[in-house]
Amino acid sequence: MTQTGTAADGQTPANPTNTANDAPLTRRAARQTEAPARRITPVRDAPLPGGRRAAQAARAAEAAKASSSARKRRFLAPVVLTVAVGMFGTVAVAPAVAATQQNGTTTAADAQRQVRAAQAQQFSVSDAVALAGTSRDGFGATAQSTLDAEAAQKAAAEQAAAAQAQAAATQAARAQTAKQYSSYSGPSANQIASSAAAANTPFSLPAVVATAKQYIGTPYVFGGADPSGFDCSGYIMYVYAQYGISLPHSVPLQDAAGTTIPESQAQPGDVVVFNDGSHDGFYMGNGMIMDAPKPGGSVSIRPIWTSSYHIVRFGI
Predict the structure, then answer these.
(1) Distances (CA, A) of 158 to 147, 153, 169
(2) Strands, DSSP E only, in 179-308?
(3) Has residue 265 been placed in a domain?
């Protein structure tokens, strides 16, 4: 039997669909069959200079550096936070402490005042104890009131001595001046005051006024104490001497010798004494005075020109 055809006819067809015994392929299997298999070749890093060990060392150094930076950041974060909190606390605490100290000081001062007030209510010292002096073991202490009283007495004594010395000097000057200008040859005021006639003359304020008016017009003479010439205190001295009342020739000393009375009780014949001790005269009522005024003047009755005076009475 002669065969016809080619060698290719004896081979199995390439298309699998023509094979009656094979099952149809899935879509994924068909794609894998159609596309050639791809081989993935791993890409390796180019070797670094110095070999693999140098590269590993470099990477380790970078990792260590990164780790050190991270540790520093983790360490510095709480430190910075702590410093910030401390600074804020310092700024805030100072006013608080000052306020606390001020409140504490005020509270302490209030407490001390309360204690002193309580003690002042609870304790009392007798005036006798406060005024009494104390002594112990031969040492003594004098109360302040005693020292003050002694000082006042000493000052009063010194003032009196000074006044007496001044009065004596003034009286001597007046006597010298009166001697030069006086033409009077009768008894002095002191001689009249100690005479029997004066002792037997009834005393009364109206009688004093009547006697004093007899010398109106007598000229003023410094140091004068007789009818030839009077100064203010010499006039008072001479008139009262005629009623047995001896007075010094000085305004302050005459003031001390009399008794001060209220002006509401004053009567004509009492004596007006200026508060500064510069002048005196007979009180005539209704704000009037009879006196020996000043050089160039004479005994007269005139209004009292000041309110700085007081009234002194003699003969009581």
Answers:
(1) 16, 9, 17
(2) 225-226, 229-230, 259-261, 271-274, 280-285, 288-291, 300-303
(3) yes
Q: What is the pLDDT of residues 167-182, one digit of tens each?
A: 677 666 656 655 555 5
The answer for residues whose C-beta is within 8 angstroms of residue 244's C-beta and 6 or more apart is 193, 198, 199, 201, 203
Contact status, residue 198 vs residue 237, Cβ threshold 8 Å: no
Q: pTM (2 decimals)?
A: 0.47
- Write out the two tokens for 83: 């410093």
Q: What phi and psi values does residue 267 have, to the nearest 5 degrees?
A: -130, 155
pLDDT tens, residue by residue, 258-300: 999 999 999 999 999 999 999 999 999 999 999 999 999 999 9
Q: Please give the average per-residue pLDDT across 25-41, as a whole number.
A: 60
Domain count, the chain: 1
User: If pLDDT is split at 50, 70 and 90, which confidence band does 164 have?
Assistant: confident
Residue 53 burial (CB < 10 Å; 0-12/13-18/19+)? Answer: exposed
Of residues 189 and 145, more confidence is placed in 189
- Which pair of structure tokens corresponds to residue 176? 């010298």
For residue 111, CA distances in Å to 70, 100, 106 come to 60, 16, 8
In a domain, residue 17? The reply is no
What residue numbers bound the domain in which 255 lies?
A: 157-313
Confirm whether 206 is domain-assigned. Answer: yes
pLDDT bin (cut points 50, 70, 90) of residue 67 is low
> Residue 20 is encoded by which pair of tokens?
């009656």
**Per-residue pLDDT at 314:** 96
Structural domain contains residue 55: no
Q: Are the CB atoms for 202 and 155 separated by under 8 Å? A: no
Give the CATH number for residue 171: 3.90.1720.10
- Give the number of other CB atoms < 10 A from CB of residue 268: 16
By the 10 Å C-beta count (0-12 exposed, 13-18 middle, 19+ buried), 252 is classed as buried
The alpha carbon dihedral of 256, 258, 259, 261 has a sign of negative
Average pLDDT, the chain: 76
